[in-house]
Each structure stands twice: as C-alpha cells, then as structure tokens.
Amino acid sequence: MRTCRRTLLDKALNENISLMQGRVLDIGGVKAGNRGRFRPPKQQTQSWEYVNINPEAEPDYCCDASRIHVEGESYDTIIMTELLEYVESPSAVLEEAFRILKYNGHVLISVPFLCPIHGDWELDRQRLTETALVELVKKIGFKLVSIEAMGSLFSVRHDICYAAFSYAAKDPQKFYLKLMRMLLRLFKPFCLWVDAKCLKGLSKYINTGYFLVLIKAKNN
C-alpha cells in the first residue's frame, strides 16, 4: 500500500463493505497477492468468485471480462477495481456486468485518472473523466448511486513521484531511489491529509481517479 491511490481505494472499499452481499463476482481481481489491505468480507457473503484473463491469478472464470460464461442475473454484487483502463471496450465490459447482475444488485468500480501509466504499460489503454464515466454507465442502464473523486493535488504528485522512483526507473534497486521511496512513504500521510482537509475543492479537476457505486434498478 505504497501509493496514495491504493490507500484511498482501500478506504472506499471498506466504506462500502455493507453492499458486498450474496454472490459476489470480482472482475479483474486475484485470489492471492492483493496489493492493498482490503480483504473480502466473506463471512457476510454467499460466495466470492473471480474473473481474470491471467490463469496465474487462479480465477474461477479465466475469460475476457466482456464474455463471462454465466447465466444472466447470477450475482448480487460485482466488484471492478482498476480494470476499465485495461480493456479495449469499457462499454462491453459494463454491458456484461449489467447482464449478469441481479436487479437491485450493486457494482463497485474504481478507475484511475491523473495516474502514471501502470507498470504493465503494454496493457494500460485509457483514462476516463467523470463526465465520460457518468454518460457511459447511464447509457448502459445503471443508476448512479455515487461517484467520488479520489485525492487531489498532493496525492497525484506523490504517486507520480513514486512511479518515477520505482517501476518507471531503469534500475529501481539503486540506493538513492530506495531512499526516495522511503521518504515518500513517510510523506504520504501528510499528502492525504492536505488533500482531504485543504484541497478537497480541487478534486473535481485534479484527482488520482474515481470510485463509483452503481445499482441495477428496475425503474431507473
């Protein structure tokens, strides 16, 4: 949990943990090796299954997120964290989520915005603004419960620097880069505090990304 964005994502997931009920499908998630501190609340769910195209992630369904081989209206909750930036067609993935979600079920989504290209750069395809996200989910038929801009100026600057001193560097194991990462970890709580207490108004324009809560309502 070294970036501000990861900390903010864990916070958003925990704040919405009550929505994770019944059969849960985590699209793009992995069973082991999660980067953050959030852990699925399996004690309050019937099942927690995974979709991933990478067989090494040991998914329950090893397939494309736009073509999941399950019946319609099968799941009560769908989780999609840091996924839509990777896919060729976000609309196709969201349409598939709509198909397999039960009515009155929730979808929890996170997407990066002012965030460095991921380490697996060859798969990182796009960034979406708040306007684009709202238009997209409503067009498919979801009701938007909430959309939250995550962090602001200090978090964005922190995470850009972290990328520069870690996976984007030619040799991340150099001593001075390790030192810079250590200093950033110490500085991170201050960055999060400033954004939350002093710069929240800037988050509409400058943020690390968004967290959305959607519902498949019968009467939108």
Q: What's the overall average pLDDT, rounded?
A: 94
What would the principal axes of the Cα set say about the shape? globular
Please give the domain count: 1
Can you tell me the CATH architecture? 3-Layer(aba) Sandwich
CATH homologous superfamily placement = Vaccinia Virus protein VP39
CATH top level class name: Alpha Beta
Per DSSP, the total helix count is: 5
Q: Tell me the radius of gyration.
A: 18 Å
- Helix content bin: 25-40%
| Elements, N to C (H/E) | HEEEEHEHEHHE
By oligomeric state, this entry counts as: single chain
Low-confidence stretches: none
Distance between termini?
Answer: 37 Å
Order of strands, main sheet, comes to: 3-2-1-4-5-7-6
Largest sheet: 7 strands, mixed
Which fold does the CATH topology refer to? Rossmann fold
Description:
The chain is of the alpha/beta class. Helix content is 32%, strand content 23%. Strands 3-2-1-4-5-7-6 form a seven-stranded mixed sheet, with helices on both faces. It starts with a helix and ends in a 5-residue tail after the last strand. The chain has one domain: Vaccinia Virus protein VP39 (Rossmann fold), CATH 3.40.50. Helix 4 (153-165) runs antiparallel to helix 5.
